[in-house]
Amino acid sequence: MKRFFYPRSVAVVGVSERADNLGRNIVNNLLEFGFSGDIFPVGPKGGRVHNLDIFPLLEDLPYVPDLVAVLAPARVVPSVLDACGQMGVQRVVVESGGFSELGAEGQRLEEEVRQRLRQYGIRMMGPNGLGAINLEIGLCLPFMNLPHKPRLGGVSLLCQSGGVGTNVIAWLAQAGLGMNKFVSLGNKLDVNENDLLEFLLEDPGTKLIYLYMEDLADGRRLMELGRRANKPILLHKANIGELSADIARSHTASLAVDDDVVTAACCQAGILRVHSRNEFLQAAIALQQPPLRGNRLVVLSRSGGEAVVTADACHKAGFKLPPLSPEIVHLIESRSRAGVIKPINPLDLGDIFDFSLYADVAAAFCQDPDVDGIILNYGPINDLEREAARAMARNLIETARRHEKPLLITVIGNLEEREYFRHELGVPVFAFPGEAIRALALARRFHTCQLPLTPVAPPEVPSLGAVGSLLAPYLATVGPVPMPVALEAMNTLGIAVPPRRLAQTAEEAEAAAQELGLPLCLKLVAPSALHKSDLGGVLLNLNTTAAVRQGFAAIAQVARTNLPKGEPWQVLAMPFIEKGMEVIIGAKRDRVFGPMILFGAGGIWVEVLEDVAMRLAPLDQAAALELIHETKIAKILRGFRGQGPSDLQALAQCLVLLSAFMLEFPQVQEVDLNPVRVFPEGQGCLALDARIIMGEAATATVTTG
Amino acid sequence: MKRFFYPRSVAVVGVSERADNLGRNIVNNLLEFGFSGDIFPVGPKGGRVHNLDIFPLLEDLPYVPDLVAVLAPARVVPSVLDACGQMGVQRVVVESGGFSELGAEGQRLEEEVRQRLRQYGIRMMGPNGLGAINLEIGLCLPFMNLPHKPRLGGVSLLCQSGGVGTNVIAWLAQAGLGMNKFVSLGNKLDVNENDLLEFLLEDPGTKLIYLYMEDLADGRRLMELGRRANKPILLHKANIGELSADIARSHTASLAVDDDVVTAACCQAGILRVHSRNEFLQAAIALQQPPLRGNRLVVLSRSGGEAVVTADACHKAGFKLPPLSPEIVHLIESRSRAGVIKPINPLDLGDIFDFSLYADVAAAFCQDPDVDGIILNYGPINDLEREAARAMARNLIETARRHEKPLLITVIGNLEEREYFRHELGVPVFAFPGEAIRALALARRFHTCQLPLTPVAPPEVPSLGAVGSLLAPYLATVGPVPMPVALEAMNTLGIAVPPRRLAQTAEEAEAAAQELGLPLCLKLVAPSALHKSDLGGVLLNLNTTAAVRQGFAAIAQVARTNLPKGEPWQVLAMPFIEKGMEVIIGAKRDRVFGPMILFGAGGIWVEVLEDVAMRLAPLDQAAALELIHETKIAKILRGFRGQGPSDLQALAQCLVLLSAFMLEFPQVQEVDLNPVRVFPEGQGCLALDARIIMGEAATATVTTG
C-alpha cells in the first residue's frame, strides 16, 4: 500500500484544457497541496493545463510513473489499464463512476477490469472513489475543490463515499484537527478498507483512523486488525436500515450488514463505533489528549450553570466526580472570602476574579493521584480581562500536559476565544460540556478496555462427528430441518432436550404418555407448520390420558385444516416442564462476519423485551459467561430477591457447543433454541424446542479469530 | 410582566467610575443595544460614566424610573428596596449574588427582601441572575459583555443560570437565529419561570420559548401553561442526577426533581423536552420552518454518501421515505442519461451538473401531496459553479416557502456556503444530516401531537369516605401503614385483594388454612419488617396443613431473630395465587409536580427490566389505558402468541382509583401494589401486596390539571 501514498511521480489520465474538465482539478489539487514529484497530465486532445503539457497518450510519458490516476469514461478504463500494464505501471487509482453501482453492464465492465489487474499485477483503488490524499508529501488526487485544507497531523480517513469524505476533511480543518492520509474507496473492486487499515496501523504518521463504510469487506479480518491495533480505530458504519438499502447499492454497490452484528464485532475487537461524523470529530479531539487512566474527573467552572450541565453529562456518561482532596479544599478556603466558594466538585469559581487561583487549583488537580481528568469551563466576561484569562488558560494547558492528564475546555459565551484556543493553542475546545464528556467517554473506552489480544480458541467437541452423521441428509438442503431431527442433533451435540416420542395415532400418543409420564405436551410436526403455536399445533399441560387422546385429535384437526393436501405429519410428545427460567439461545451466520451466537430472555419475552446479547463465534466457557452477563435477565439468573442462582455454567456450555456446531457446519444458517429452561445451579438446563435452518454453504472462510 | 420588558426609563444602582465596576457594564449594554429611554446610573460616589452623570442616590433622580436594576452588595439590597418602595418604583431586577445560594445568612437576607416586596408591592427578578433583555427596545441588563448579539427575531429565552444564558445568546447569533426576549432568573425569589412563561405565551414578538432550569417552581402550573401554549416551549431541565445536586444548590439554590416525572409531565403537557443547548438550537431552526404535517420525507442529494447517511438518520427517527411518484420518476428519466440517475428516494443527483433539474425536481416535490418535507444535501464542487449553485438553492428555498413545506439543507464540504445560506438567505442549514433529521423529529412532535386541551376530570369515587375512616389513625403519622391496613384500604377503595386472615399462633394459622383453602402463603407483619422476603418472612405455596404449621413456626423464628426485642408481630395468611401476569401499580407524590401514578412489569421484573411508565394524576379510564399501553409488557397483556388478552379494563380501573386516592389524601407519599396479578379479560385482577407510606402533608396545592 505504501506505493499508493508515497509516489515520486503521478500521471493523471483524462485531462483536457476545457474549463469544466474534472481531470484538471486533480492536477490543480496536486499543485495546490504542494506535491513535489513529477505531475503528468494525460488526455487525447493534448494542450497545456496549469503550465504543464498534456500528453496525448500514457505511452508518451518520459518514464513510467509510480502512480496513475484515471478520470476517463468507464468504458475506456480497461484499455487505460492495458496501457498501464504494458508500460509496467503497478499502482492505479480509478475515480470514474459507471461500474457495478449502475447494474449489470457495470458489473461486466468490472469483470474486465479485474481481469486486467490479474494479468498485469496491478493494484487499484476505486473505481467510483476520489482516490488518495497524503498531506505528508502533498499528494492530492480528488477531482473536486477542497476549500478547507486541514493542517498536517495524525488523523487518517478511509471513506467509502467521496461526498462524505470531503465533508469530513472540511470539518477536520474547522475543528483544528490535523490530517495525515485520506482514501475515498468507492466500489472497492481491488483495494479494500482492510488492506488500507493494515497499512495505516503500521504507518508512523497515522495516530488515529476514521472509517466511513457503507458495507464491509471481510468482518473477520477487520476484527483481527482491530484486535492488534495500538491506535484508535473509529468505525462509522452507515447503511444500517432498510431506508438506505437501495441508495447504498446504487451509490457504492453496498449491501447491508446486520447492524447488531457490527456493534457486537466492534465491541469484541476494540474498534470504537461512532454513529455520526460529529461524534467522530469530538472523539478525535479527546483522543489526542493524554490517556484517561480512570473514571474520576474534576470540573473547574467559571459558571455555576455550566458546572451543573457538566455534572449532568458526567452522570449520563457514568463518570465519577470525587470530593476534592483536603489539600485542595484548604487551598480554596485560604484564597477566597469565607463562604463565597463552596469547595465541592464541580467547583464553581465564578465569583473569583483572581485568575492565579484557577492556575493553582488546576496545578493541584494535576498532582492529585485521585484525579484522572480535568474539565474547564471558562470565558472572559469582558475585553479587559481577555489577556489575563488567556494567560491563565495557557498556564493550565501547560500544567496538564506536563502531568499527562487530559484537560478538556468549553469556552462560555465567546466564540472568538474558542477559536483562539483551538487554532492558536491547539487545545481541545468544545462548544458544550455534553460534547466534551461524551467524547471523553469514548476515549475512556479506548484507554481502559482490556481486550484479550489472542482470540478465543475453539474447544474440542467430540460429539460433532455424530451430529454430522445425523444431519448428513440435510446438509445440502435449504430450509428448516425437521423438528425431531433438530432436537436429536442438539441432544447429540450435548445440549440436553427432554425425552420425546413421535405419534401418528391417538393410541401412539397414549402410549407416549405411558412412557414419558404426565403432564404431557403435544406438538404438530410437518414441513409447512413452522409457526406451530399460531396454528394451534401446540398443546401444553395435558394432565390425563383422556386429555392426551383429545389433544391428539385436536392437532389432527389442525393438520387436516391447515396443511397442504397430502403433506405428511406427526405429533411429537414431550413431558410438560413448568420449572426453570425461560431463556433463548440462538445462532446466525452473517454474510460479512460469519457465525454469531446470541443469548437472551426467552419465551414470550424475546420479542417484547428485546433483551438479547450477541457475540461472534468461537466462544469458550469464559466468553459465553460474559455474553450471558451482558443481558438484563442475567440479574435474575445470578440470583435475585431470595431466589437462588440459576445454572449459568450449563447455559454457557450450551453456548460453547452451539458455537462449535456453527463453525463445523457452514451449511447451517440459523439455529433457534427457544425456550431453553434453566434450572437452579447444578441442575442444568433443557432446550424445549429447536429450529435449524440450512442455507447455502457460506463462501466466506471462517477463521478462528 | 410587561412592565419589566418595556420600561421607558431604567435606573442602574451600583455604578461607579472604576474600570472594573460591573454596574458600568449594564449602562454600557443599554447604550450598545440602543435602549431609547432614559438611563440613570446610580452610585454613592457619583461621577460620570459613558457620558452620563452618576446619581449618588435613587432619590436624586429627576423622576421615578419604570425599572431599577441593582448590582450592589447583597447586604444593602433591602435598603435599596426601601428607597425604591418609598419612591414608588414597582419593578426591580436584582443581579447581586450572596443570597440563599450561600446558605442560612443569605436565606435571612432573602426573607428581608421578601418582606420589602410585600410591603411596597414591588415585583422583582432575581436575585443572583443577569436580569432581562428585550431586543425590541434595546433593553439589556446583564452585567457582562455580550460579544455576540443576535438579530431581532422570535426566540425568547428563560435561563436560570446567567452563564448558560449568555452562552445560548452567543450560539443563537452564531446559528443565525433571531432573539426576542431573555431573562436570567437566578434564585427566583419572586418572579419565576411560570410568571414569565405566561407572559411570553401572549407576547406577539415571541414565537418560540427555551427554558433552561435547574429546578421548577410549580409543576402543575407549568403543565397548564404547556397545555394552552400555541407556540413551541422547549424545556432543558438540568440538575438531573446526584452529581449535580450540590453544585445546583450552591449555584441557584435549586433542589432536584425526579427526572422521570419531568419527562412524563412534559409529555402530558406538550412541552418539548431537550437535553442540551445544541439540541435546542437545532430544533429551533427546524421549528421556524413551515409545519411538518406528516411523516413522509424526500431526500434530494448531491452526494450518494450523504444520501445514505440521511436515510440512516430517517430510519433512526422513524421517518418514512416513500417511493417517488410516477410523475417525478418520469421527469428524472426524461432529463438524465439512461441509468445514470436511479429514480429512488433518497434521490442522488450527484452526476447531474444541470442545476435546473434540481429546481424542477424540488418543485415537483413541493406539489406532491404525498411529501411532507424535503431534505437537500448540497455543495458546489468548485468555484466556477458557485453562483449557479446558489441561484439553484435560492430557487428551491422560494419554492418550498411558497408551498409551505419544510425544506432543510445540509451543505457538503464547504463551510463558507453554509454560512452564506444561513446568514444571507436565512434558511435552515445544518452541518450534518443527522442533526437536521433529529431537529425535524422534534418539530414533528410539536406539529403533529394531538393533546387533550382540557385536562382529565377526576372521576367520582364514592368509596373514598370509607377509606378515609379506615386510614384516619395513620393520616398524621410518618412512615409505612401496617400491611393489613394497607390491604384493607385498597380493598375498600375498590382494588381487589385476596381474602386474608391474621394469625398469632400456629393454631390460628391452621384455622386460616381451613377457611381460605390450600395452598396458602404466610407473611410476617411487623413495623420493622419492611423487606419481608429478604428476611425469610414470606412463605409461598404451602400445600398441606402440616406445611402451614411448620411455616408459622419458621416465620416465628424469623421474627424472634430479626425483630427488635419486644416488637409485636403477626402472620398474615392468604391463598397462594399462581395464575395471572405480574404487574406493578404504584403512586408517588413529587415535590414539584404532585401525585403521579405508575404502571409496569411486576414482581422480580420491576428492577431488572425497568419497564415502567408514569403519568401525573388525575387519570380517567382512557388515560389509564394509555399509560398501560406505554409499557413493553402491554404487548403481552394485549394478547400475544396464542395467549388471550388480559383484563386491561380492570387494571385501568385500579389506576383510576389510585389516582383519586392520591388526590384525596395529600398525606400519602407513596403507594406500591407489587405484584398485582392480572387475569384474562373479564376476570379482573388482584393486588397481592400493598404498601402505603405516609409523609408530611404536601404543601403544594394539587389542582386537577
State the main characteristics.
alpha/beta, Rossmann fold, seven-stranded mixed beta sheet, 25 helices, seven-stranded antiparallel beta sheet, 5 domains, homodimer, 20% strand, 705 residues, disordered C terminus
**What is the CATH H-level superfamily of the largest domain in chain A?**
ATP-grasp fold, B domain
> Most extensive interface: pair and counts?
A-B, 102 and 102 residues
The unreliable regions of chain A are 697-705
How many strand elements of chain A? Answer: 30
Going by helix content, strand content and strand pairing, the class of chain A is: alpha/beta
Largest sheet of chain A: 7 strands, mixed
Distance between the termini of chain A: 24 Å
Helix-residue proportion of chain A = 25-40%
- According to CATH, the fold-level topology of the largest domain in chain A is D-amino Acid Aminotransferase, Chain A, domain 1
- Number of H/I helices of chain A: 25
CATH class of the largest domain in chain A: Alpha Beta
Number of domains of chain A: 5
Level-2 CATH architecture of the largest domain in chain A: 2-Layer Sandwich
User: Which oligomerization state do the chains in this entry correspond to?
Assistant: homodimer
Global outline of chain A: flat
Side by side, the strands of the main sheet of chain A go: 9-8-11-10-12-13-14
Radius of gyration of chain A: 32 Å
Strand content of chain A: 15-25%
Q: What does the average pLDDT of chain A come to?
A: 90
